[in-house]
Amino acid sequence: xxxxxxxxxxxxxxxxxxxxxxxxxxxxxxxxxxxxxxxxxxxxxxxxxxxxxxxxxxxxxxxxxxxxxxxxxxxxxxxxxxxxxxxxxxxxxxxxxxxxxxxxxxxxxxxxxxxxxxxxxxxxxxxxxxxxxxxxxxxxxxxxxxxxxxxxxxxxxxxxxxxxxxxxxxxxxxxxxxxxxxxxxxxxxxxxxxxxxxxxxxxxxxxxxxxxxxxxxxxxxxxxxxxxxxxxxxxxxxxxxxxxxxxxxxxxxxxxxxxxxxxxxxxxxxxxxxxx
Length: 276
What we know:
By secondary structure, the protein is an alpha+beta fold. It folds into 2 domains: 6-124, no CATH class; 142-272, no CATH class. The protein is built from 12 helices and 5 strands. It has helices at 28-32, 39-47, 50-63, 69-78, 88-95, 114-124, 126-170, 178-197, 201-207, 221-239, 244-263, 266-272; strands spanning 6-10, 13-20, 23-27, 100-103, 109-113. Strands 1-2-3-5-4 form a 5-stranded antiparallel sheet. The longest helix has 45 residues, at 126-170. The mean pLDDT is 83.
């Protein structure tokens, strides 16, 4: 399970969401607080219900090949009896269920797979369930936007390696000092910066003294895609022996052409989110 919880706010209540085995689990403890502070009693009352037991059993049968059906049948027969009690921990221990995760400690609590959590929220309040689903979907949409941004950034980093390798093989004579080599890399990086952004990294820093990072950290998705293409093309041009001034002119023309296409691409616009 991830050590750091994600949080969503539902009708003024913070609800923790964690990931385990690539699945989302939502805090039943936090959901129960919408009704009362005695969260264990609320969860226990829900679990002793026959309909709840049957739902949990069917869910585990569908998604858990290691679920113990005989123990489940025993719970189902007892469900509804006055003396019957059941907790998430007991359910997990007896049936080998995977729909719940129980965490001990100060920041612990009972978490359930989102399917089960939505069912519990519905039992608490239909209105609360609908708001929970809405906020959970918003969280997943934000995660997808960040994933798209991260993928484009990583693509730019990979292509940058191709670019620097071409510089190393073709533009750096032997026996240069480390300082001289770094100057060549920086100089070639600014060829791309000038072609795409119209300024060097140093010029950008002078214009933005309060910002951390570099000019590329503030690029939008379209610019990162274009940058990845320019790095590949510049590596090819370097290998072909094209002079720097000629490469800069050619890369600038390509950048203008590609940015016009990228900015008109509706699919790419969806990846940009609010920061593009």
